[in-house]
Amino acid sequence: MFDKFKQAGQLLKMRSEAQKIQKELEKIRQAKERGSMKVVVSGDQKISYIEIDGEEKKELVELINDAMKDVQKEAAKKMLEMGGGLSGLLGKM
User: Fold this and answer.
1) I need a surface site. Which of 9, 30, 33, 91 has the fewest CB within 10 A?
2) How high is the mean pLDDT in each 10-residue block of the chain (93 residues)?
3) What is the pTM of this model?
4) End-to-end CA distance of the chain
C-alpha cells in the first residue's frame, strides 16, 4: 500500500519537473530571416510568428501549428504501438 503512495508521489514529482521543463522550452526563441521572410520558432517547437513581405501571417502560423500538433499525436500513437514490441529489448525496468 505504501508503495502505491510512494509511486504516486514520484509521479507527481515527475509531472512537476516535466511542466517546469516545458515552461523553460516555451521561453526559448529562434528567429530566422531570408530575403523578405521571417519566422520565429519556440523551444517547444511551435511557430510563434511568420512575416512575408512585411506582412504578419497569423493564419499560416495557426495552420502550421495545427498540422504539427496532429502529426505529433499520430507519431506518439505509433511510438506507443511500437513500444510494446520494444519492451523485451529494454529489459526489465
Assistant:
1) 91
2) 76 88 93 98 95 98 97 92 63 48
3) 0.68
4) 20
